[in-house]
Amino acid sequence: MPGTKAKIRLRRLGIILAILLVLAAAAVRLTPYDPADWHVDPISAGDPGMSGVRIVYRNGDDLADLEDIILSTPRTKRIAGSIRDGRVTYSTRSFWWGFVDFTTIAIDQDAIVVLARSRYVGSDYGVNRDRVSGWLDRVQAIQN
């Protein structure tokens, strides 16, 4: 029966593709990173290009509120630095695949400089800009 052989081949192909998908997802979630590679000065760091965003927020006094908002974001944690140091880096993972984005905030005179960038892809499709803008909008709402 030629139809049965074709079904078996399709089933095997499906199993192979499912295994490859699981392996790819595991690689994204389990590949280690060195926080020092991402805990860079957002003021002097290079242009993040299409994989990120740099935003200057004018009120440096809002750093503690901003950190509270960042840490309340799902799948986000502090990986390096502290507010006392004047520079903090966070990682945020996407829900399904676990792609990791890194956000570093620092004080520059009386402003907060935020540098957010993606680890894995050439373009983050505006995800980092949207996340950071949402954080800063929430800080402004607290202040008003």
In terms of per-residue confidence, which ranges show pLDDT below 50 for 5 or more consecutive residues?
A: none
Helix percent band: 40-55%
Number of helices: 4
CATH overall fold name of the largest domain: TATA-Binding Protein
Structural class: alpha+beta
The number of domains is: 2
Record the strand order, biggest sheet. 1-5-4-3-2
Order of helices and strands: HHEHEEEEH
User: Per DSSP, what share of the residues sits in E-state strands of 2 or more residues?
Assistant: 25-35%
In CATH, the homologous superfamily of the largest domain goes by the name Kinase associated domain 1, KA1
Number of strands: 5
Sum this structure up briefly:
With 144 residues, this protein is of the alpha+beta class. The chain has helices spanning 2-30, 35-38, 63-71, 127-143; strands at residues 52-57, 76-82, 87-93, 100-108, 111-118.
